[in-house]
Design brief:
The strands form 16 sheets. Strands 14, 15, 16, 17, 18 and 41 form a six-stranded mixed beta sheet that branches. It is globular and about 105 Å long. The termini are far apart. The longest helix has about 40 residues. Among the domains are: about 325 residues, YVTN repeat-like/Quinoprotein amine dehydrogenase (Methylamine Dehydrogenase, Chain H), CATH 2.130.10; about 80 residues; about 120 residues, Immunoglobulin-like, CATH 2.60.40; about 110 residues, no CATH class. It is built from seven helices and 65 strands. By secondary structure, it is mainly beta. α4 runs antiparallel to α5, α4 runs antiparallel to α6 and α4 packs parallel to α7. Keywords: Signal.
């Protein structure tokens, strides 16, 4: 018996877990709100065969295509690619349908996303096939043999964070079915570029590069034996290293360019020390080189940039992508800066038939020019922003805040912010700080916004547009050896607002700092809360190019959270793997790092539980150290012990490293995890995880917030995404779905007449989201009724036309008392969880067109309602409330005003229905009389009455009675208000006129 009682709860838990893991969450769809502003794009290309067609490859946004010269862009990689990081795109010269893509960008920042091999399309990007090389890491270049589209070359840089043997030059001769590694130097040396000789594709040049990232530095280059330029003249069978005229000492990243019109000419831009850096030129196919220029603009941050391109018609015209974009017209002797929409330049492609038609890319997106770069297409049509974190304010609708890499902080509305918002028009506000963030609106006063900019704290006023800086230490920390700094602030140094006082703000260096007056005064409330290993406090950038931007400041705090239920209990995590907690507001601290957690990882998030003050969750990633395992942990005793909740077998893949972990505020044990490649959910406190990706593109999830029942995400390459109303996940019924249908309680919904239309940003129309579960697929028998507080049916929605016919009442008294029943195919009948968005609309006026009949009525007034689901013979009911728009109070509009308005609106609807029906009857009567040819007197009588009802044909007709009643309906139902006296009197006037006219008609 004892064994039986022990097993029972285990079996019950197993049953619940099995039910949850079997569920399909496709009913919960993400929507994107932007921003529309482009993010970092690392590669671009075009095709001479279709001059208006171009592709861009983003660092975290995947592959996008334009067919109208950059006027609009659409994604072509979603659903096919396992990574959003793109390194190279090539289109076959003789067939624009054939496209090869190498993943993993070559600008190896610390937040670079790993590549996962090669992809191929044979239908111009409509579909893609993965064709191998999944372990080569970052791909620097792809080249297609112009004589044979199945012969493709790949330059593989390798894993950016550890040594790996899958580096080198790879070649396929069968379109990617098989690959051969034709050049290899070592497991630490990869290849950043390769070029085929025009006219003889057996001649190949390749640029070797030794590069590696750690959390504290970037190594770009090495000894001469580890880098340089290689050449093959027999299709990669044999290689020689080119030496004459090239640097003899340290050598780093190299990019190559061969002239299409003079194959003797080969250029190379080379990272090397001092005067050895810059542009080299060969006029004998690489036998010898001449150093042409040591212009620093050519090798500005070479690990991140370094890309050459030649004018396809003139070998003396050279473009160099770095910071800035520079152009030479004399073979590289002199250079002139070009103006582009954004800095940090990565790639350029020029049409071989018209070099003035070109596409260029940078950290702000991709831009097309028709005039050689004098003017450019917009970057505000490609939603590929890299967002570091997410916050929300308390407006209605709430606005979403974050910081965009290499751009500004931003705030954008979660929904159309007003009923007059132009559909499809993105709205964006800069809210101080800079590209790194965080950016957090003050709770209770969204006009004030707390910011960080690369370690500098500021407070922004939305009312004045002024950003007041109150930096801790008041010192510029850029470019320093971190060991010499008083305060080490990471580039994305965390700030956190106390849940108990909106004026108390925490910020992290190696210490935890606190202000209670907007940054005017700061106090240190902790010791050094990092590992602070001296050998990692070094100048970044080895062995050639110094590069210290704050990304590499190690041993700094990276995440801060104060418990919402235990004031003074504060958790911190550092970017070198230390977790600390204080329970007394900073007086005493304890290092509570999990004993089994490998050293040195970045604590991406700390999350105190909102149900148990001793419980907390952490997300730690070590991919910068070459370890891609996800480390999600939980403690129930203030960190005395920890449980790893991301094992090899409980749902999260072993190479989806951890980004963020958040707890649902309404249901204990409901967790959301963001990883490098997407979202996961757990209903049992992390014991098991299920993919929660749905329509979300594969992209790193940088932050998660739950607010007003919504799930809001920021992503490193695709901006912000929202799932509206996840309250059904919080419902315990979610754990007991089985053989019977279920209806989940809808969330209370604010009544807001939102504008309609526009695919992007994806602003939803106001609706009550009603979730229900069906145990099996059903062809019919599903009906949803909405009932008001008096149990009167407001609307009935059915799932098929057969049911509509059987439910529909007979039309009596001109149908004015008919129940509002309509067919909506979005009332799904498939097995599993389904979602229906009810638009709050009541019965509208009668219309001759059956498809419009009774549609488009006014929104129901605020109040209590019930959803009633009928499945077969079973019914299920759940209450919900429609809430008044909170902004109406400021306009002096009350619930009583809305109810009075509704009463008048329905009187007008009845009058309009009567008038439309009379018009229809008169038209039918006139047709009958015209066919029967029975005298003109009766005919003229009806025509005279019809003219008073119906507008004349043609432009700008005078509105007659139906038009006048329709106009009154329009102005009464457009916005919430107290009805005006003129409207009331106009209704009485129209009613009197119609009654008289109807009596005259006598039908």
């Amino acid at each position: 018996m004892r064994t039986y009682y022990r097993l029972l709860p285990l079996l019950f838990t197993f049953f619940l877990t099995s039910v949850i893991l079997a569920q399909d969450f496709d009913a919960f769809q993400y929507r994107t709100i932007g921003p529309a502003r482009g993010g970092r794009v690392t590669t671009v290309t075009g095709t001479a065969l279709e001059p208006g067609t171009f592709y861009l490859g983003a660092s975290g946004g995947g592959v996008w295509k334009t067919e109208d010269y950059g006027t609009s862009w659409f994604n072509v990689s979603d659903g096919f690619f396992e990574t959003p990081s793109i390194g190279a795109i090539e289109i076959a010269e003789n067939d624009a349908n054939i496209v090869y893509v190498g993943t993993g960008s070559d600008g190896i920042r610390s937040n670079i996303i790993a590549g996962k091999g090669m992809y191929k399309s044979i239908d111009a990007g409509k579909t893609w096939e993965h064709i191998g090389l999944e372990n080569v890491g970052q791909i620097g270049a792809v080249e297609i043999d112009p004589t044979n589209n199945n012969i493709v070359w790949v330059a593989a840089i390798g894993n950016a964070f550890k040594s790996n043997p899958e580096r080198g030059i790879f070649k396929t001769t069968d379109g990617g079915k098989t690959w051969e590694k034709v050049l290899f130097v070592s497991d630490e040396v990869g290849f950043a570029d390769l070029e085929l000789l025009p006219g003889n594709s057996n001649v190949v040049y390749a640029a070797a590069w030794k590069a590696r990232r750690t959390p504290w530095t970037i190594d770009s280059g090495g000894e001469n034996k580890d880098g340089g330029i290689y050449k093959s003249v027999n299709g990669g069978k044999d290689w020689v290293k080119l030496e004459e005229g090239l640097p003899k000492g340290l050598i780093g990243k190299i990019d190559l360019a061969v002239s299409p019109v003079d194959s003797r000419i080969l250029y190379a831009v080379i990272e090397a020390p001092d005067k050895d850096r810059g542009l080299y030129k060969s006029i004998d196919q690489g036998k010898s080189f001449t150093h042409i220029s040591d212009n620093e603009d050519l090798v500005n941050r070479p690990f991140y940039y370094t890309n050459l391109e030649l004018d396809p018609t003139n070998p003396d015209i050279i473009y160099s992508n770095a910071n800035p974009l520079v152009k030479s017209t004399d073979g590289g002797k002199t250079w002139k800066r070009m103006s582009v929409p954004h800095g940090d330049n990565h790639d350029i492609w020029l049409n071989p038939n018209n070099p003035d038609l070109l596409i260029q890319c940078n950290d702000g997106g991709a831009n097309v020019s028709h005039n050689g770069g004098k003017t450019w297409s917009t970057q505000f049509n490609q939603p590929t922003a890299e967002i570091y974190q997410v916050a929300v304010d308390e407006q209605y609708p709430y606005w979403v805040y974050g910081a965009q890499q290499d751009n500004t902080t931003i705030a954008i509305p979660s929904k159309a912010p007003s009923a007059t918002t132009t559909p499809g028009t993105p709205i964006m506000m800069n809210v101080g700080g800079c590209e790194t963030g965080p950016v957090i609106p003050m709770p209770g006063n969204h006009y004030m916004v707390y910011n960080n900019c690369k370690g500098r704290f500021s407070v922004y006023s939305k009312k004045t547009g002024i950003d007041r800086e109150y930096s801790i230490g008041a010192s510029n920390i850029y470019g320093h050896n971190p060991k010499d700094l008083k305060y080490r602030f990471q580039r994305v140094a965390p700030i956190h607002v106390s849940p108990f006082d909106p004026e108390v703000v925490y910020m992290g260096s190696q210490f935890l700092h606190r202000t209670s007056n907007g940054g005017k005064n700061w106090e240190i409330i902790s010791p050094d809360l990092t590992a602070n290993e001296p050998d990692k406090q070094v100048i970044s950038g080895n062995p050639i190019t110094r590069d210290i931007t704050g990304e590499e400041y190690y041993s700094t705090l990276y995440s801060i959270r104060e418990s919402k239920i235990a004031k003074g209990t504060i958790w911190t995590g550092s970017n070198d793997g230390v977790i600390s907690v204080t329970k007394d507001g900073g007086k005493t601290w304890k290092n509570v790092t999990p004993k089994k957690l490998p050293k040195g990882g970045r604590v991406e998030s700390v999350e105190p539980s909102q149900f148990n003050p001793a419980r907390a969750y952490i997300a730690v990633e070590r991919h910068l150290l070459g370890d891609n395992k996800p480390y999600f942990y939980k403690t129930d005793n203030y960190g005395e012990s920890w449980e790893l909740i991301s094992t090899d077998s409980n749902g999260i893949p072993s190479d989806y490293f951890a980004r963020v972990l958040r707890e649902d505020p309404s249901r204990e044990g409901l967790l959301y995890a963001g990883t490098e490649y997407g979202m996961f959910v757990s209903f049992d406190d992390g014991k098991n995880w299920k993919k929660f990706q749905q329509n979300l593109p594969v992209v790193p999830i940088t932050d998660i917030i739950l607010f007003r029942g919504d799930l809001i995400l920021s992503a490193m390459g695709r901006g912000f995404w929202i799932i509206d109303n996840i309250t059904s996940l919080e419902d315990q019924n979610m754990n007991s779905l089985g053989d019977s249908a279920a209806l989940f309680k809808p969330a209370n919904t604010i009544r807001y007449d939102s504008p309609r239309g526009g695919d992007f940003p994806d602003y939803p129309s106001t609706s009550v989201l009603i979730d229900y579960y069906l145990p099996s697929d059903m062809k019919s028998g599903v009906q949803l009724d909405i009932l008001d507080v008096q149990n009167k049916v407001v609307a009935s929605i059915v799932s098929d036309s057969t049911q509509l016919k059987s439910t529909k009442e007979e039309v009596e008294d001109m149908g004015l008392n008919m129940t509002f029943v309509y067919l909506d195919k979005k009332l799904e009948t498939k097995k599993g969880i389904n979602r229906f968005a009810w638009d709050l609309r009541q019965k509208g006026p009668w219309d001759k067109n059956k498809n419009r009949r009774y549609k488009g009525g006014p929104m129901v007034p605020p109040g209590m309602y019930k959803a009633k689901l009928t499945v077969g013979g079973a019914t299920f009911e759940q209450p919900f409330e429609i809430l008044i728009d909170p902004r109406l109070k400021d306009d002096g509009v009350t619930l009583d005003n809305i109810l009075e308005q509704q009463q008048l609106v329905f009187k007008v609807i009845d009058l309009l229905s009567d008038a439309k029906m009379l018009q229809d009857n008169l038209e039918k009567k006139i047709k009958e009389l015209e066919k029967s040819k029975i005298g003109d007197a009766k005919l003229d009588h009806y025509k005279t009455i019809l003219k008073q009802l119906k507008n004349e044909e043609g432009a700008y007709p005078q509105p007659m009675m139906v038009g006048q009643i329709s106009y009154l309906y329009y102005i009464l139902s457009g916005t919430d208000k107290e009805p005006g006296q003129e409207e009331k009197e106009r209704y009485s006037e129209l009613l009197s006129q119609f009654t008289e006219l109807k009596q005259k008609a006598g039908i």
